[in-house]
Design a protein that fits this description.
By secondary structure, the chain is an all-beta fold. Helix content is about 0%, strand content about 50%. The chain is globular, with a radius of gyration of 13 Å.
Length: about 130
């Protein structure tokens, strides 16, 4: 069983930064791919970023590329999402999720992830 707990959300002005954390338990980060997804009101949950279990492959949604960075701290068993140059359209509940299937190439579909955190709200004021 894998458990994930997000933190770090909040209210920030447009152009500002936030760093989200995803604390993982039940597995080491070298055995799971961890992705970040978000869901805005009235919209479907969408892919934001993912880091492979190997730690050397990252993918980003086009909408966040160049602004967001996913990383991890193996000792703290935590995955981070550094979000810079935030825009009003980044407002959403952000979720981290774990894919435990061991695929070398990380996946971007919500259906590939078996374990999810409870989410953390990010609100960007314009």
């Amino acid at each position: 069983q894998v458990q994930l707990v997000e933190s770090g959300g909040g209210l920030v002005q447009a152009g500002g930064s936030l760093r989200l954390s995803c604390a993982v338990s039940g597995r080491t980060l070298s055995s799971v791919a961890v992705g970040w997804f978000r869901q805005a009101p009235g919209k479907e949950r969408e892919f934001v970023a993912v880091l492979s279990w190997s730690g050397d492959i990252t993918y980003y949604a086009d909408s966040v590329k160049g602004r967001f960075t996913i990383s991890r701290d193996n000792a703290k068993i935590t995955v981070y999402l550094q979000m810079n140059s935030l825009k009003a359209e980044d407002t959403a509940v952000y979720y981290c999720a774990a894919d435990v299937r061991g695929s070398y190439i990380p996946n971007k579909s919500i259906y590939d992830y078996s374990y999810w955190g409870q989410g953390t709200q990010v609100t960007v004021s314009s």
